User: What shape does this take?
Amino acid sequence: MSKLSNVLLMLQLLQNGRKYSVKELAGKIEVSERMIRKYKDELEYSGIFIDTIKGSYGGYVLNKDFNVPYLNFDSDDLVTINKAFMLINDSKLKEKLINIKSKINLNINNKKNNSKVTISSNYELNVFNKINNAYKNNLKLKINYFNLKHGTSIRTIYPLGLYLFQNEWWISAYWEEKDDMRQFHLKRIIDCEILNIKFDPNEINIKF
Assistant: This one.
């Protein structure tokens, strides 16, 4: 795998909240322990901080105070993906790369258009963290959502992504009751509960 893929895989492993030794991570990603330490440095350079637990039972743990709704990709990453695209003959893999490119383009545009992330209160931060947790663990959410036309209503959603638009957070999700994909504005979520019910995002992606 490419260096970028390895770094993302390491981040994905750490996002489950458990501690991994450097040796474990090296084995799972199939690189040297020296490269794992280098990946850690690069993640922290990007603002994603990883706690180091020392001792014989030590290892790396993703900082509990940090959430990763999206990664700060840049134009260099697009160049890398374009090169990979030209070398691959598998049509399904090419289609996946096109989807990744579109997400990176959105990320770059958000970065250009937004000077800072707007979370206006501790309550909003709490809701954001719950949504991010459900998104990372493929768990359904029950939300009390305010709609300008119909007022408040209880909805069951499957969070598939978090993104910034005009300096505010939105959630891309499947709405169970309507059997449809919708975009939900974080500021309009009055209450939020994580349900202990998993969903398969691949089934939703295939459906839509």
Observations:
- Strands lie at 50-53, 59-62, 139-147, 151-165, 168-175, 180-185, 189-198.
